[in-house]
Amino acid sequence: MEGSREAILNIYLTSLLGELELADLFITLLALGAGLLIGLISLSGLITLSADIDRVRRISKFLVALSAGTMIGGAAFHLLPESVDSLGGGFNLNVTVAFLAGILVSYLLESVLEWHHCNQIGGCEEPSHRHSIGAMNIYGDSVHNFIDGLIIAAGFLISPFIGFTVVFAVALHEIPQEFGDFGVLIQAGYSRRRALLYNFLSALMALVGIIVVLTLGDFTFPLFEAPPVSLSTILLPFAAGNFIYVSLTDLMPELHKERRTKHTLIQFLVLLLGITLMASLLFLPL
Q1: Which terminus of the chain has a smaller tally of CB atoms within 10 A, N or C?
Q2: Can you say how many angstroms the Cα of residue 106 is from the centroid of all Cα atoms in its chain?
Q3: How confident is the model at residue 12 (pLDDT cuts 50, 70, 90)?
Q4: Whole-model pTM?
Q5: What is the C-alpha to C-alpha distance for residues 92 and 233, in angstroms, rounded to an integer?
């Protein structure tokens, strides 16, 4: 009888472990697929070669507004609330420090590495050393995509829903950014083929970030308040800080360049649309 119970228990545990392994594999495939999607978005610069440049520039402005809205909404409605739940409830010191770290690290990268997201079609205003500007753009964009990968993987490790909300916000941000990055590389003297290749390779750094978190995401370490937390968990408020920083210091200043009242109003409505889209995800029957 005892042996029978033991056999049943072994079968149950084997089945449970198999389900857990399948769940881990599913999350891994989702995260890696998201990284490949970000890589493919880097090829969107091709649109600027054949489309009417003025039309692309107009569309890009509204994409920037939508991206800013989804980033603000993603941070406010998903990342920060999930951070509070995952880190012991309440806006405690761990959440606060990680959130501020997301802002400060983003600022540090922008200042020290000269990481600047160019959202203007045809390139941004840059100094005369064009080739070095192109190389710096590739390097800075690689770091930025690596951080995107960290954030995406952390989201999927918490839940597929959080992962998809992060991917949605990041993807919308990537499209107008890749337009601008492609323009910077062309202005820096790169051929169209090389510009697309380097854009694609830098975008694949998101996959590197994803693999790092999938490998080390369960690694725990003590912070300011017990118990120790996992890397994937602490990356959630970090991601919220990164989203807020990028939307307020990078994307929204681009919107301020529009002086026409009608277009400013439309951009504001598109910004609200982005926030509303992220808020509406809360009501999905998941």
Answers
A1: N
A2: 12
A3: very low
A4: 0.79
A5: 14
Closest CA to 183 of 22, 56, 280, 21: 56
**What's the number of CA atoms in the CB half-sphere (13 Å) around residue 104?**
6
Tell me if residue 159 falls in helix, strand or coil: coil
d(CA 66, CA 32): 25
Q: Which residues contact 212 (CB under 8 A, 6 or more apart)?
A: 149, 150, 153
pLDDT of residue 16: 41
Express each pLDDT in 125-140 by its tens digit: 544 444 566 777 788 7
Tokens at 122, concatenated? 């045809």
* CA 125 and chain centroid, separation: 25
110/156 Cα distance (integer angstroms): 26
Do residues 142 and 39 lie in contact, with contact meaning Cβ atoms separated by under 8 Å?
no
Q: What is the DSSP letter of 204?
A: T
CB 243 within 8 A of CB 74: yes
Cα dihedral value 214, 216, 217, 223, nearest 10: -160
CB 40 within 8 A of CB 131: no
Could you please report the per-residue DSSP string of 24-62?
Answer: HHHHHHHHHHHHHHHHHHGGGGGHHHHS-HHHHHHHHHH
Helix 130-158, helix 205-216: angle, nearest 10: 30
The Cα-based distances of 92 to 88, 96, 226, 237 in angstroms read 8, 6, 11, 11
Give the pLDDT confidence score for residue 113 in this predicted structure: 65
Q: Is 260 exposed, middle or buried (0-12, 13-18, 19+ CB in 10 A)?
A: exposed
Residue 136's closest CA among 118, 114, 110? 114
* Each residue's pLDDT tens digit, 13-72: 445 444 446 667 888 889 999 999 988 888 877 776 666 666 666 777 888 889 899 999
